[in-house]
Design goal:
The protein has 627 residues and is an alpha/beta fold. Among the domains are: 2-155 and 212-221, 3-Layer(aba) Sandwich (Rossmann fold), CATH 3.40.50; 445-626, ANL, C-terminal domain (GMP Synthetase, Chain A, domain 3). β13 (328-331), α13 (338-346) and β14 (351-355) form a beta-alpha-beta unit. It is globular and about 80 Å long. 45% of the residues are buried.
Length: 627
Amino acid sequence: MREKEYGIWQTLTWSGLAEMVSHLAAGMHQAGLKRGEHIVVVGSNRPRLYAGMLAAQSLGAIPIPLYQDAVAAECVFPINNADVRFAVVEDQEQVDKLLEVREQCPQLAHIYYDDPRGLRNYEESGLLGLDDVIAAGLAHLRSHPDMVQQEIGKAAADDVAAMFFTSGTTGNPKGVVHTHRSLLDRAQAGATFDKLGPNEDVLAYLPPAWIGQNIFSFAQWLCCGYVVNCPESFSTVSIDLKEIGPTYYFAPPRVFEGMLTSVMIRMEDAGTFKRKMFHYFMKVARQFGPDRMDGKSLGLGANLLYRLGDWMVYGPLRNNLGMSRVRVAYTAGEAIGPDLFTFYRSIGVNLKQLYGSTETAVFVCLQPDNEARADTVGVPCQGVEIKVADNGEILVKSPGLLKEYYKNPAATAEVLTAEGWYHTSDAGFIDNHGHLKIIDRVKDVGRIQGGAFDGAMFAPKYVENKLKFFPHIKEAVAYGDGREKVCVMVNIDFDAVGNWAERRNLPYAGYTDLAGKPEVYQLIKECVEKVNADLAEDELLAGSQINRFLVLHKELDADDGELTRTNKVRRGFIAEKYQALVDALYAGKSEQFIETQVKFEDGRTGSVSATLQMVDAKTFAPARKAA
C-alpha cells in the first residue's frame, strides 16, 4: 500500500503489513476481542485501518466499516444492532463522534485511533492509540509467538468475513452479512474478467463503508496483490489521481460528471485557438473514438486524424484527468449519460459499466472491453444466473450473495428464495445481445392516472437520470405515480451554472439567489424539454414526460436526510418534507414560499427561505401517434 502524508507517498510492503496485522491482532486478542464478535471501523482509506480490519478477521471477528461522514446519531443503530464493543477509528473527529454516543451505546468499551493529533489530553476509559495496541500485541507475541497463526488456522471459507449496512432509504439500515467465500469469489470473478494482476495501481478514495470501495481496494487487493494508494485527504484526490496514474479505476457517474464539467469550464475560459482546436478534435473523437475503443478498424485517414488529435488533445486531456495509464475504468450505482459515457471512450479511456449491489458483493454483470454500451450494464459474469420475473424484476443467483440480513430473518426471507434466487428489486430485461438493461426500481415503477397518458408507465429514476445527464443539473426528484402528470424538483450544479452565469455577466449572491434567476429557469427549461422530446420517442415511457418543474432553493444534502450517504435520493422523505412544493406544482400555482431547516457541518442548524417559481414545460406527442 501507499499513503500520502505531508505531501510524500509512504510505502508499506506486504511483509510490513503482515507484521502490523499480526501485532494488532495480538493486541486486540489480549484486550478481549472474540471470534464472531463485531468491530466497527470508521475513517477514510488508511493503511492502518485496513490492517485493523485484517487483524479482526485474523481473530475470526467481523469488521463493520461505517461512513466517516455520518453524524454521530447515525452510528448508534449499527453499533447497538451488532452489539459492538470495539472500534477502530481514524482521528479525533471520529473519536469525538463515538464518545458522543457512548451513553446510548454503553457496551462500546474500546476505541482505538490511528491519528493522535488533538487527542493528547483525552482521559476516556478504553481510548487507546493504535501504536499502543501494536506495542501490547508485540509484547504478547513474545510469549505466545504462534497465537495469531493458530487463530487464522481456525477460519473457514463460509465463516462471516464482514458486514455492511445498507443506506436505509426506507427505515433503519440493514446489516448485510458476507462470508469470506462470497467476497473473495466475486473479487476473483471480476479480476478474471478484466485480467487484473499484481501490476495494477488503484486509488482508494471512496468511503470504505461502501462495498464497492471495499471490493476494489480490499477483497480484490488481496486476490490480485496489486498496489492500493490512499490519498492524503478528500480535497487532494484530483492531485493524487494525477500523481499515481491508476491503471484500474472506479468512480460513480457523479465523479465522471464533475471531471467533465471542470474540463468544459476550463475550455470555455481558454483562448480562441485552443477552444476551436478542442471542439474540432472532439468531433473527430466522437466520430471515430468509440469504434477504435471497440477494436474496429479505422481507415488510414481516420486513423491518422485520430492520432493527431491524441497527440494534441486527447493525450494531454487524459493526463490532466489522471487517466493516462487507465487500462480498465468502471462506473456503477446510477445510470451514466450516453454523452458522458461516449466522451470518455472517445478520448481513449476504457470506461465500462457494471451492475451489482451490497447484497451481491458487487459483481453481477460486467461489460466486455469491445461491448461497452451506455444503455446496458453488461453480461452476467462468472457464476451468475439471471432471470426476469413476471413483474419485470431481475432475479440473481450467484456465489456472491449475502448470507443473511443480520438479526432480520423476515427481510432475508423477502429477498432470498428457497431455491437461492435473490430479488434485486430492479426492473429490467435481457436484450438481444445478452446484455442486461435496467429501467428503474420495481417499487418505483408506477402508472399515470388520468389525462392524455392515462395508464402509461412512469419510471421516476429513469426520468431523473436523463435530467442529470445535463451538466447544469446535479439532482432531480420526479413525482407522477397515481397522478395525471409528472412534476419534478431540480437541483442545479452550482459550479457549472455559476460559471455559465459569470460568462453572461449575470450577478448572483450564493446558491439560493442563482437558483431563482429567470435566466437559470430558462436554461433548466431547455434541458427539461430536451428530455421530454427524448421520452416521446419511446412509446413505453412517453407518459413520463415532465409537465411542470421548479428549481429548489437549496442543495439536497445527506445531513438534512434528503440523500443517503451514497447520495441516493430519498424520494419519499423529500415528498413529505417539501409537501407544500409538491402540492403547489400539482395545483397549478405559479409560485410558492418555502422555509427549510438546514444542518451545517459544525452541527449548528439554520433556515433557508425563498419564493420558488413553478414553470410549465412543453410536452410532445408519442412518436408512434405522431407518425
